[in-house]
């Protein structure tokens, strides 16, 4: 029997952040519908965070509205009297329209009610991005500061990249910041990299199908920052030395006579010495060359922590004042929306970008939080999801806000209101499409887990 290790700490952090993030986004989205409906005199029967089939985790009626929390964290809803929505309350729609019902209101009021959630999500994202820039600023890694180049992982080696290369251009456009590499690669169908190798430019072209494979692996096993292998601390409970010992500040440059000046080289080489004793070549105090005997455990670990790459590379940091952060946050949010739309377009126009490789459910969404509770990352992801939620909800699909808005616009232009039966069937078709899409995305994520 094989037991698979499971990181419960990372799982808990991801689940907690997912629930908190989407609770904020859904509650504010539904509040947009709620407040505008109340503003125009509509009766709101229910306001729910998350869906509540069969039972609710909590509910309380205040005035004419029942407030509650469901147990299925896939969305939320407000039930507005006289509106054909997820509840599919056909009996209520058979009764004569009442003044407090959604269907009795002018088309322009109904349009505002339907778009209010989307507008709040979009504005919320811009506020979040502005406050992130105000609080933490913006930190980027200039390619020019990567004095040790890149570490080429398995897929990068496959396409012709090498350790120590410096990627300077993507598709003949200057790559100023290393942080922009994923975006530059994924928003194109074909890619050619210009690489500075030993002082000379070398062109690396992706073969057909490579970008698809890269996307499927979410850019894992491609490239990372290369840095020296310097000891930051030693775990006395795990490290076992047969002669001498490592101390903080030691630079490991060799293992059993093989040069391994960089951490990535050393990590790869350690895999060949599981359960063995080795001799390490070490530079101490930047001048002394010494030998240290050490035992490598069965997992290929030595029992030390290396200094992180950030200690060897200069990042470019920009701080924003409060007033500066507002236009900067707006620009950042708009740019993220444009990139998302471009990425979505490639799913339908590019052979290298497949829906099955890019679509994900709550499992994929939860993983994006990184497995640790980091407030900067949390708010960044919440802002991105708010942008995506706004865009997806405004799509002209029945059962989404955009579908309702489309029918209302049709009514405003033609003067003819779609019949209740038509709206019922449209809502049913939309719900089937959405549920089918969610089931497909969940199936893909389950397949990836086992793959």
Secondary structure blueprint with pairings:
Blueprint: H1 8-39, E1 44-51, E2 58-62, E3 65-69, E4 72-80, H2 90-94, H3 107-136, E5 138-140, E6 150-152, H4 154-159, E7 166-170, E8 173-174, H5 181-186, E9 192-197, E10 200-205, H6 210-216, E11 223-225, E12 231-234, E13 241-243, E14 251-255, E15 258-259, H7 263-270, E16 277-284, E17 288-295, E18 304-306, E19 316-318, H8 322-349, H9 355-358, H10 362-367, H11 375-394, H12 401-414, H13 420-450
Parallel strand pairs: 1-3
Antiparallel strand pairs: 1-4, 2-3, 5-19, 6-11, 7-8, 7-9, 9-10, 12-18, 13-17, 14-15, 14-16, 16-17
Report a brief summary of the structure:
This protein has 451 residues and is of the alpha+beta class. It has 13 helices and 19 strands.
- Bulk shape: elongated
Radius of gyration: 28 Å
Mean pLDDT: 88
* Unreliable residue stretches: none
Let me know the number of strands: 19
Cofactor: Zn(2+)
Membrane topology: Multi-pass membrane protein
EC number: 3.4.24.-
Keywords: Hydrolase, Membrane, Metal-binding, Metalloprotease, Protease, Transmembrane, Transmembrane helix, Zinc
Could you explain the architecture of this structure?
- It is found in: Membrane.
- Helix 1 (about 10-40) crosses helix 3, helix 3 crosses helix 8 (about 320-350) and helix 3 (about 105-135) packs antiparallel against helix 11.
- Strand 16 and strand 17 form a beta hairpin.
- This protein is about 45% helix and about 20% strand.
- The chain is built from 13 helices and 19 strands.
- The chain folds into three domains: about 10-135 and about 385-450, no CATH class; about 145-225, PDZ domain (Pdz3 Domain), CATH 2.30.42; about 230-305, Pdz3 Domain (Roll), CATH 2.30.42.10.
- Strands 13-17-16-14-15 form a five-stranded antiparallel beta sheet, covered by helices on one side. Strands 2-3-1-4 form a four-stranded mixed beta sheet, covered by helices on one side.
- The chain is α+β, with helices and mostly antiparallel strands and about 450 residues long.
């Amino acid at each position: 029997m094989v037991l698979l290790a499971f990181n419960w700490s990372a799982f808990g952090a991801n689940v907690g952040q997912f629930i908190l993030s989407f609770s904020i986004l859904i509650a504010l989205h539904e509040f947009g519908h709620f407040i505008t409906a109340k503003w125009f005199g509509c009766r709101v029967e229910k306001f729910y965070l998350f869906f509540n089939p069969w039972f609710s985790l909590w509910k309380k009626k205040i005035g004419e509205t029942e407030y509650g929390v469901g147990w299925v964290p896939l969305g939320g809803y407000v039930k507005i009297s006289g509106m054909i929505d997820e509840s599919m309350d056909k009996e209520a729609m058979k009764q004569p329209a009442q003044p407090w019902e959604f269907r009795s209101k002018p088309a322009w009021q109904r349009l505002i009610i339907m778009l209010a959630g989307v507008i709040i999500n979009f504005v919320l994202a811009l506020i979040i991005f502005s406050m992130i820039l105000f609080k933490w600023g913006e930190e980027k890694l200039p390619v020019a500061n990567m004095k040790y180049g890149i570490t080429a992982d398995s897929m990068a080696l496959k396409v012709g990249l090498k350790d120590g290369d410096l990627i300077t251009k993507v598709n003949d456009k200057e790559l100023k910041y290393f942080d922009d590499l994923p975006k530059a690669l994924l928003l194109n169908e074909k890619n050619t990299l210009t690489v500075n190798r030993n002082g000379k430019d070398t062109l690396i072209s992706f073969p057909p199908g490579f970008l698809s494979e890269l996307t499927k692996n979410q850019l894992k096993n491609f490239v990372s920052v290369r840095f020296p292998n310097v000891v930051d601390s030693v775990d006395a409970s795990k490290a076992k030395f047969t002669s001498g010992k490592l101390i903080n500040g030691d630079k490991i440059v060799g293992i059993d006579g093989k040069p391994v000046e960089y951490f990535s080289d050393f990590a790869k080489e350690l895999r060949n010495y599981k359960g063995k004793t080795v001799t390490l070549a070490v530079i101490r105090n930047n001048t002394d060359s010494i030998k240290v005997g050490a035992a490598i455990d069965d997992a290929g670990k030595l029992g030390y922590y290396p200094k992180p790459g950030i200690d060897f590379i200069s990042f470019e940091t920009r701080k924003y004042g409060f007033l500066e952060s507002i236009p900067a946050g707006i620009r950042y949010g708009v740019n993220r929306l444009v990139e998302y739309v471009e990425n979505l377009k490639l799913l339908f126009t590019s052979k290298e970008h497949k829906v099955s490789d890019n679509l994900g459910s709550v499992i994929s969404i939860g993983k994006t939080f990184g497995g640790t509770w980091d407030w900067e990352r949390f708010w960044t992801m919440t802002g991105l999801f708010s942008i995506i939620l706004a865009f997806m909800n405004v799509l002209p699909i029945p059962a989404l806000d955009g579908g309702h808005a489309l029918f209302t616009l049709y009514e405003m232009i033609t003067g003819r209101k779609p019949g209740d039966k038509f709206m019922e069937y449209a809502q049913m078709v939309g719900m089937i499409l959405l549920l089918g899409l969610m089931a497909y995305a969940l199936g893909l994520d389950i397949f990836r887990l086992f793959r």
